[in-house]
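Hi R.,

Here's the chain you asked about this morning:
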Amino acid sequence: MIISSTQVSLLIAFTVAWWSMRRVDRQLASTVSNLFFTFVLVWKFSSIVIYFDYVRQTPMAVLYYNGGEWGLRLAVLAVLIQLFFYSKKHAQISGLLFPAWLVLLTVLEAAKMIQTAATVPDALLAGVFLVLFVLIWPKENRFLNGYMLVAILIFQWVTVLVNGDFYTEGLVYSWLFSLVVFVLYRRRERV
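And here is the predicted structure, written out as tokens:
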């Protein structure tokens, strides 16, 4: 089984987000961990549905393979649906999901940049994400707003540009999640 640097970065980011949100609200930490495990389980076991004939012939393949791009899309969809239901069931969580998402985004990008930094711009961008992480760390913070989210998303896009792409599928998913979390957060503020 091969573990990529992105998978390690995701694990680091979810662990830091879980730990930081546990300090604020235990129920939110539980929600963050549930979302993470939903993502991993759907992505991993979607190979049963996507590659049914192969898995039926070789059942041990489930241990080594994941659902690939389609499994990733199903996992993202499953987490978005679960996020929507969590926000309906627990209104107070909607207000805390936004800081959790900001922490997750900044740590994910910093961890990816630190693990794969091959040039000076990569190292500088890793530093930028660490500074952004420090700025959003406290629970009640004036930096927890839409402008910080836009800044993080712009720097995330710059990391993709520095690596030679205009956009990636991961960037699209990140922006989609950001939009959903921000809409849920703003909806809660208005209520």
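One quick note: The chain is about 85% helix and 0% strand.

Cheers,
M.
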